[in-house]
Amino acid sequence: MNSLTSEILKQLVNSGNEPISGQQIADQLKISRTAVWKHIKQLEDDGYEIISVKKKGYLLHKRMDSLHPAMLDSMTSTERVGRKIHYFDSCPTTQSIAHEEAANGAVDGTVVISEEQTAGKGRLARNWSSTKGKGIWMSIILRPDIPPQLAPQFTLVAAVAITRAIADETGVTPSIKWPNDLLINGRKCTGILTELQAEADRVQSIILGIGVNVNQTTEDFPDELKSIATSLKIEIGNDVDRLVLTAKIFEYIEKYTDLYIEQGFRPLKILWESYSDTLGKRIRASMVNGEIIGKAIGITEEGVLQIQTDDGKIHGIYSADIFI
Ligand code: BTN
Questions:
Q1: Which has more confidence, 6 or 135?
Q2: How many CB atoms lie within 10 A of CB 200?
Q3: Strands (E), the chain
Q4: What does the record give as the reaction this protein catalyses (predicted)?
Q5: Atom of ligand 1 nearest to the CA of 114
Q6: Which CATH architecture has domain 69-275?
Q7: What pTM did the predictor assign?
């Protein structure tokens, strides 16, 4: 979408239920009324329903189901997260774009979001299915002043933030499977991929890749995922507003990263533990170099999972697939 069209969309959103006159838009953007009309036509062609109210102006009647920054901006009250958004209709993966943006100096809280990913990346080099317009596929660039070994904590902070956002929006609270899978009724609705740009002693940026399955039906998932993945729509039985949920995720990520900076990991660890479906259970952790079976007894201050095997030994797990 051209930047003037997007600016007009923003004005329509901001004027809410009050029509805004073509003249007012033209004056503010220093363009002619004919140009305003052309951009309004463009928005209509894109799927926005705009009513022309006689002698009063334009009114946005129905918004499209899109995560366009002009729409997100009007719903977000954060100071950093989501204030700068790079939006794509389609891209291979938001992670690589976010890495480039971070390397080029993107500010803390910058978001890269796409309606579709053609080469979505999951953890452990897996693919991430990212159907067009059905989920939230985004990468958030964070710049906390912490040493690299504390970065895994951010995966857990993000898991708690998204859990809270989903609970607020749907009334269903997912459980967290260590470190980063959000499950509803045992099936995965959200994955988080945390990547780093760091020097030896300091993090330059954390790229928080977030994939939320929102409005897919079972048919939207590839066969191999049908029995293990789910969407919010499948679980609650109706469509979920992706815009509202995305804005909520921005808010909770900002709130909990602020809490982390002020009070450290402890309060977030307590929250994470309260949502965990891993702790206290007998689990199998499958890693590249073998597997460990035992009881998940806790996470450390660094976010490392601790498993106690039958011989009483405690093992710290940094990265693994967990089977319960
Ligand atoms: C997982 O394996 O559970 C992590 C999945 C992370 C998916 C998200 S979608 C947005 C961002 N872009 C990607 O390619 N991956 C992450």
A1: 135
A2: 6
A3: 49-53, 57-62, 85-88, 111-114, 135-142, 175-177, 181-184, 187-198, 203-213, 282-287, 290-299, 305-308, 314-317, 321-323
A4: biotin + L-lysyl-[protein] + ATP = N(6)-biotinyl-L-lysyl-[protein] + AMP + diphosphate + H(+)
A5: 10
A6: 2-Layer Sandwich (3.30)
A7: 0.90
Give the Å distance between the CA of 191 and the centre of ligand 1: 6
Distance in Å from the first CA to the final CA of the chain: 46
Residue intervals of the chain classified under CATH 2.30.30.100 are 282-323
CATH class of 3-62: mainly alpha
138 lines ligand 1 (CB under 6 A): yes
CATH of domain 282-323: 2.30.30.100
Residue 294 Cβ < 6 Å to ligand 1: no
Which pLDDT tens digit goes with each residue over 144-184? 999 998 888 888 999 999 999 999 999 999 999 998 899 99
Residue whose CA lies nearest to ligand 1 atom number 7: 211
Q: Does the CB atom of residue 76 touch ligand 1 within 6 A?
A: no
